[in-house]
Amino acid sequence: MTDRYLIPAGRSQIELVILRSRFISTADYTPTVEAAKAFIAEISQTYADASHNVYAFAVGFGATVTHGMTDDGEPSGTAGKPTLAVVKGSGLGDVTVVTTRYFGGTKLGTGGLVKAYTESAQLVLSEIPRLEKIEKQTLTFAIPYNLYERVKRLIDRHDGQLETEEFGVDIAMQLIMPQSEVDSFAAALTELSAGRIMLD
Considering the entire predicted model, what is its pTM? Predict the structure, then answer.
């Protein structure tokens, strides 16, 4: 499992008009299922007079991802499924796409709907700004004074960020570290201290 993946760095919106039907796609960063549902509710309320508010989301990334989708009244498989396929193929995690449709009076047919919803999702995700999210873990442990400088160098080597230090009988440290570094850091710390330092 990777602890680094791309997420939206903001919201984006595009509009397509196909045979007088308006497709408005909005995408945003949604780090939890609750955030995804809140975003979907917000867009559905904003466009409460629309014919359909179709959505698809991915919360998490890779092996630990939760997906959701709806056709919202469009023929089964013509809207939510193609939108979710685009979300899955986008390389983004923690993202929700809602495509709002205002029916223009001309039926697009199942093939036309799949194409329209696919294009809308592709366009909005191609516009969205991206940044890298790194899953991190908080570590706390105490070290003797004679290991202080060596442990600080070890923290740097494993991309750790020292949050707090408390100087008492020992030095209590709290730091944040990328999850992918934790196991190797713990092993190096055990070796450095001959097994005396244990991570909480």
Answer: 0.72
